[in-house]
Specification:
Mean pLDDT of chain B: 86
Number of strands of chain A: 0
Number of domains of chain B: 1
Helix content of chain B: 55-70%
Shape of chain B: globular
Low-confidence stretches of chain B: none
Oligomer: heterodimer
Distance between the termini of chain B: 21 Å
Strand content of chain A: under 5%
Pfam family, one (chain B): MnhB
Radius of gyration of chain A: 17 Å
Strand order of the largest sheet of chain B: 1-2
Radius of gyration of chain B: 19 Å
Organism (chain B): Robertmurraya kyonggiensis
Membrane topology (chain B): Multi-pass membrane protein
Distance between the termini of chain A: 60 Å
Subcellular location (chain B): Cell membrane
Protein name (chain B): Na(+)/H(+) antiporter subunit B
Number of helices of chain A: 3
Number of domains of chain A: 1
Order of helices and strands of chain A: HHH
Low-confidence stretches of chain A: none
């Protein structure tokens, strides 16, 4: 029962990732693509979490944390680039 | 052009950087028996410094962390090679390792391995290389 539910949710997550990939490739503006990348990271985290529940292992928790950190930093870098046109500033304007 | 206002990212980054540093050290320590190790620990450490670079500017971070990262990479490779050469002193093959169990005051019975010294070298090399690349290609001059 639980196993069927978990596999079903993995299938739905795969469909969601496919829809996000459509937005990532097609997306009219760069902001759409950045948001699609952020949502893609969250979907991958959910997939890894459900998979680790499915095989009853705790070995993937570091993977979840690491994907979360990298997705966070990537989203911040893209947002900084879209807003200011530069990722890392030399000197902050005061 | 109006003044940029990034109070939210500064407030979040001050907390998140501490968490990422702790996680990087945890990854580094757990590397002998569990997933982790010098390479991925160094990458997580470098990602925390990159978050600092994104939040504040290069000048501020360089003033507070006065390290030449090319030198860090070189020292890391030197440590790794020297720990490999150290095994030759005991008449065993290159890069051999040893471990033993010791009784430490707080931790109790602890396993100490010489592979940790090699891992420190790997971590320093990865940190230095990653940050040198980021600072070279992130320069907008």
């Amino acid at each position: 029962m639980i196993k069927g539910m978990l596999i079903g949710s993995l299938i739905f997550l795969t469909l969601s990732i496919l829809a996000i990939m459509y937005r990532l490739v097609k997306g009219p503006t760069a902001s759409d693509r950045v948001q699609a990348l952020d949502a893609l990271g969250i979907n991958i985290i959910s997939g890894v979490a459900i998979f680790s529940v499915l095989i009853r292992s705790t070995g993937f928790f570091e993977v979840i944390l690491l994907i979360g950190i990298l997705s966070f930093i990537g989203t911040i870098a893209f947002a900084r680039y879209l807003e200011r046109g530069v990722v890392i500033e030399r000197k902050h304007p005061k | 052009m109006k003044e940029p206002n990034d109070i939210i990212i500064r407030s979040v980054a001050k907390v998140a950087v501490v968490i990422i540093f702790t996680f990087a050290i945890n990854l580094f320590i757990s590397g002998h028996h569990y997933p982790g190790g010098g390479f991925i620990g160094g990458l997580a450490f470098a990602s925390a410094v990159i978050l600092l670079f994104l939040t504040f500017d290069i000048e501020t971070v360089r003033k507070n962390i006065p390290l030449d990262f090319k030198m860090v990479a070189a020292i890391g490779v030197l440590i790794a090679v020297l720990t490999g050469l150290g095994s030759l002193l005991f008449d065993v093959p290159f890069l051999s390792q040893a471990f033993g169990y010791f009784y430490l005051p707080i931790f109790g019975k602890t396993e100490l391995a010489t592979a940790v010294l090699f891992d420190i070298g790997v971590a320093l090399a990865v940190i230095g290389t990653a940050l040198t690349i980021i600072m070279s290609i992130g320069d907008d001059r």
